[in-house]
Here is the input.
Amino acid sequence: MAIRNIREIGDEILTKKCKAVSEMTPRLRELIADMLDTMYEANGVGLAAPQVGILKRIVVIDTTGEDPHILINPRILETQGEQTGNEGCLSVPGKTGVVTRPSYVKVAAQDVDMKEYELEGTELLARAICHELDHLEGRLYVEKVEGSLMDTADDEEEEEGE
Ligand code: NI
Here is the structure.
C-alpha cells in the first residue's frame, strides 16, 4: 500500500474517458488499496482512478471515514431530486464551488471480486457518486459550478475533496 500522486487540474489525463475493467488482477487490487490510502491521507471522501493517473473505471468513496465503497465499472441506474451545495475536488486544491446534483442516486457496480452489486446514496454520498463518475468521463466539477469557483477560506475546516 502506498500513497499515490494526485493529478491536478490542467493535467490532460483528467480530461480523458476511462476504460472498463474486464478482470481483477493483483496490480488492480494494489491500485485500489493505494487509492483508499491516498483518499484518506488527503482527507477526501472520494477518489477516481484517473486522479492517480490510471484511465480505468474504478472509484473509491467513503463519506463517513468508516464505510469504504469500491465501485468498478459503475453505472447510474436511477436518480431523484436535486441538491445544491458546495463541492470540492482533490484535483482542484484550495477551491470550492456550488454544484447542483441529484439528491438520490442508485448505482450498479462491481466490487473487488468483480461481483455485481447496487449502492444507493443520498446527500453527500449521492453527490460523491455523481462527482466520481464524472471523473471517469473526463469531467471535472468546475464545469458545473454555478457562479464562480471560490478559494477555500483558510480559517475554515478544510473542504471535503472528492
Ligand atoms: Ni474530484
Observations:
- Strands lie at 46-48, 58-61, 69-80, 83-87, 95-101, 104-110, 116-122, 146-151.
- The pocket of nickel (II) ion is lined by residues 89-91, 131, 135, 162 (CB under 6 Å).
